[in-house]
Amino acid sequence: MEVNIKKLKRIYTISALIFCVVFFKCTSQKKTEYDIPSHVPPENRALLIERAEKGKVLYKLYCSGCHGIFTKGKDGIPNFTKVQIDNYHTAALIGLDPNNHAVAKKMSSQQIDYVITFLRLRKIN
Amino acid sequence: MKIFSVIAAILITFFCFSFSLQQKKEYNNLYSSSVDDLNKELNLLASTIQHTDMSGSAGREEIRELIKDSRLKMKRLDFWFRYFEPNVYRKINGPIPVEWENEVFEKFEPPYKREGAGLSLAEKYLDKEKITRDSLNALILASVKALDTFRADSITQQLDAPDHFFLANRLYLLNLAALYTTGFECPDTNHIIPELRSMMKDVKEIYSAFGATFPSKPLSSSYLSLYDQAIAFVNRQPFNFSSFDHYSFLKDYVNPLFRMNQDFVRSYSVVTKNYNDYTLNNDCNSIFDKSLYSPQNSKGIFSLIEDKELLDEIRQVGKMLYYDPILSGNNSRSCASCHIPTEYFTDTTQATAFQFDHQGHLPRNTPSLINVVFHHLVMLDGKHISLQDQAREVVHSPQEMNSDEKELVQKVMSCRDYKNAFKKFLRYTPEEKDVSLNHIVSAITYYYSGYSYYEAPFDDAMNNKKEISTSAKKGFNLFMSKAQCATCHFVPIFNGVSPPYISSEFEVIGVPEDTNYTKLSPDKGRYLINPAPETMNAFRTNTVRNSAHTRPYMHNGVFQTLDQVIELYDAGGGTGKKLVVSNQTLSPDSLKLSPAEKADLIAFLKSLDEDIIFELPPSSLPLSGNKELNKRKIGGEY
Questions:
Q1: Average pLDDT, chain B
Q2: What is the DSSP string of B94-141?
Q3: Most exposed: B227, B244, B267, B444, by fewest CB within 10 Å?
Q4: Spatial distance between the Cα atoms of B513 and B556, rounded to a whole number of angstroms
Q5: Is residue A40 pLDDT above 60, yes or no?
Q6: What phi and psi, each to the nearest 5 degrees, are found at residue B93?
Q7: Is the same domain home to A67 and A113?
Q8: What is the residue-wise DSSP string for A32-101?
Q9: Ranges of each domain in chain B
Q10: pLDDT digit string (tens) for B539-550?
Q11: Could you tell me the fold of the domain covering B465-606?
């Protein structure tokens, strides 16, 4: 009887551990790494990353439905070219949106800046 | 028999094809032949300048006549040029030699310097004694060179599709309302109405050619018949632009034509690919509707929120904060201390407000916050690009509210009502982890911007809802002509934003330090932001709406009455009053306004007083956990 309880306990512990590991694996998403240009002074690096992180939240909510899903490990965001990002930035800032993105029209210039900073700085593997 | 039918089929196809090509060409041909005509005229002008003796008045007269002819050819192309490439067009029809552009597009970058050339400047300089043959010729040759741009494929291929036409036409109609009848780019005021007549007739030809080439997207017959009536109206009017009936022209012709053109833009699903008309709203049906062009973003950090109830909650919190002195370092000054909401959001009792320490005064007059959303650059020197940036600066400024950002947020969050509200709003700004000053200032800008959407009796008159007095109508006609107001205060907001409503203009008018005109106001204005010889003492052109309620006037609040303001302009600005202003953009000549004319102008200004419904101040302010803070007064102590 006692042995059985011990056995059961062990099974419980192991399954709980496995559950924890699986749960952790599923929910934790690899942190985005950023490529900060070398000319940015050290005191501004944290600020830029903070903005990019805000952009990431907005991107996830409003853009990734069509342009790349966030899953564990890698994200599936298309590798937009620099020219694509620059053109989009200009158009979105003045409210002239070439891609019919209603949400970009609604965003403030600061929010657009966050999203663009995220796309410009995120490290592409 | 079989061969015959095949040949016939081929012939018919060929015939149809060539016919459609022929049709397509009518519109394109009109464009290219007009460009050729202007080119010929400009070259003739350039060679005449080379071979004419400029010292005598006969030579100058000959050149003046040729400039006049060239201008008519240019005006024929204005319809297209101004829409396709307004910056290159400035080399053919530049109103002033150097302009510093401050467009919505460019406000994220330093201002661009744009040098004008062409016929308007040549005509203006012809009367100057020291003008040389070479410098005059250089202005014309710059135009010839600029004309090549308008032959480029990238521009002419736009003529192959109908979309651009309705957008160019929209800009043309807006300019009929705001520029063409005011002498904005026409130095000789005797030519304004003759040029207008010729231009309107030419545009009629453009309409016909367009109709022949693009029969699937026609201008309606009611549009064309109203346009014919507009031409007939202008032809009935006198040549003198000061006796021209600007009021009826706008109300009965231009504005209804604009509405019909907006119908075409919507029903033909016209799409813009142009970087010059992005602020214009396709859903707006009147030039005198505040939805005409996109204003400043008043929501700030709450931009993505659309729920009406939630927005109203944000507005209520914004109102509370607006009246709350908790925003200042010593908890005694609020936004409402200087921008008093029930007094058109300004302070009519002080020329310039007290500094924070009450030891001195701020350098500039407190501006009314009504209609600031319609300026693309905020502050009289255009220092800020958004309302939120401006609010943040005032809160920090040691001379104004002298607050520390961190302490301020803590103080606000120490009040339970604010805390609950902002915790709720925070859920709708997912990119932000904590409540920040951005949340606070965005609520404030959202609150006060709501007061910019009321209309004035003049708007109602233009929209055929109400009548205004004869004196106000006369005043408007003067405003648009003899008094030269409308060359800087543009229809419809009567501020420095001209069609296509993407830039904010700055002017130098020579405002004195005191009412005795002993010296020029030392405030450097725009120069502080963009140091250039042209920007010294320049200020952003403000709106004249509600001016009867927003005294004192000018950047330093030097004038107490509208009469004093009109007197400054009537005298020819600071220069006309014998002050030394090296770069005044206002003509130094007297306007020669009679007392009756001045009274009419004021009657018109009063018809621009908006019927604003003001709210009472809040009855109490949120209680704080810090008892010391609960002593603060609603609206603060000044």
A1: 93
A2: -SSSEEEE-BTGGGGSPPEEEE--BHHHHHHHHTSTT--HHHHHHHHH
A3: B267
A4: 8
A5: yes
A6: -140, 55
A7: yes
A8: PPB---TTS-HHHHHHHHHHHHHHHHHHHHHTTTTS--B-SSSB------HHHHHHHHHHHHTT--TT--
A9: 31-158, 161-287, 300-453+623-631, 465-606
A10: 999 999 999 999
A11: Cytochrome Bc1 Complex; Chain D, domain 2 (1.10.760)
The answer to whether residues A58 and A108 belong to one domain is yes
pTM of the model: 0.90
Decide the pairing of beta strands B539-540 and B506-507.
Answer: antiparallel
Assign A21 a pLDDT band (cuts: 50, 70, 90).
Answer: low
Nearest Cα neighbor of B257 from B231, B293, B294, B291 is B231
Chain A positions touching B301 (Cβ under 8 A) are: 108, 110-111
Q: Phi, psi at residue B115, to the nearest 5°?
A: -100, 130
- For the segment B278-299, the average pLDDT, to the nearest whole number, is 94
A39 and A79 in a single domain? The answer is: yes
Distance CA B200, CA A94 (A): 32
Min Cα separation A63/chain B (Å): 14
Chain B nearest-CA residue for A53: B431
Q: Is B431 on the interface with A (CB under 8 A)?
A: yes
Which one of B273, B282, B303 would you mutate to disrupt binding with A, by most A Cβ within 10 Å of its Cβ? B303
Which residues of chain A lie closer than 8 angstroms to B430, CB-CB?
57-58, 61
Looking at the structure of chain A, the number of domains it has is 2
| Residues of chain B contacting residue A61, judged by C-beta atoms under 8 Å apart | 430
Asked whether residue A39 falls in the same domain as residue A18, the answer is: no
What is the number of other CB atoms lying within 10 angstroms of the CB of residue B140? 27
Please, which pLDDT band fits residue B412 given cuts at 50, 70 and 90? very high
pLDDT (mean) for B427-434? 95
Q: Please count the residues of chain A.
A: 125
Provide residues of A within 8 Å CB-CB of chain B: 54-55, 57-58, 61-62, 90, 93-96, 98, 103, 106-111, 114
CB contacts of A58 in chain B (<8 Å) are 430-431
Instruction: Compare CB distances from B303 to A93, A94, A107 and report the shortest one's residue.
Output: A107
B411, B456, B610 from B452: Cα distances, Å? 30, 11, 9
Closest residue of chain B to A99, computed from CA coordinates? B273
Q: How far is CA B113 from CA A87, B99, B102, B530, B533, in A?
A: 23, 6, 9, 11, 12
Distance from CA of A18 to the nearest CA of B (A): 32
Q: What is the CATH number of domain B300-453+623-631?
A: 1.10.760.10
CB contact under 8 A, B297 and A61: no
Q: What is the pLDDT of residue B5?
A: 66
Are A20 and A37 contained in the same domain? no
In the three-class reduction of DSSP (H, G, I as helix; E, B as strand; rest coil), residue B415 is classed as strand
Element (H, E) at B575: helix B573-576
Candidates B36, B42, B74; CA nearest to B140 is: B42
Enter the ipTM.
0.82
Q: Do B303 and A108 touch (CB under 8 A)?
A: yes
Q: What does the angle CA B16 – CA B19 – CA B22 come to, to the nearest 5 degrees?
A: 155
* Separation in Å, CA of B104 to nearest CA in chain A: 7
Closest CA to B126 of B45, B54, B44: B54
Check: CB of residue B368 under 8 Å from CB of residue B489: no
Mutate to test the interface with A, among B271, B305, B431, B438 (most CBs of A within 10 A): B431
> B293-338 pLDDT, tens per residue?
999 999 999 999 999 999 999 999 999 999 999 999 999 999 999 9
Helix (H, G, I), strand (E, B) or coil at B390: helix
Residues in chain B: 638
Q: Which of A59, A30, A34 is nearest to A49 (CA)?
A: A34
- The residues facing B624 across adjacent strands are B415
